[in-house]
Amino acid sequence: MTDLLVAVAMAVPDPGGAEAPPGSEGLLAILRWVQWVALGVCLAGLMAAGAAMAIGARRGEGGEHMGRLGMVLGGVVVIAGATSLVSFLATA
Q1: Does any domain span residue 47?
Q2: pLDDT per residue as tens digits for the range 49-67
Q3: Does a structural domain hold residue 56?
């Protein structure tokens, strides 16, 4: 098993430095814009879920909206994780 891991590690090319490749600034700027837009959409979704929970609480349906709230928070976690991973890989 360790021989396989060593072979895979040897097959991965070394980029030859710790900086991002030339011309990647534009891509990183686009990714930052996409991150902020996506997080803004998630924030709007959280507000909509909160409003639906408040309206539903008056009718006795408050618990049905917890699934929607969980989906929105899951989306925030995926967006934050993806952007962290991309920025780590781009600067490493």
Answers
A1: yes
A2: 878 887 777 777 666 677 7
A3: yes
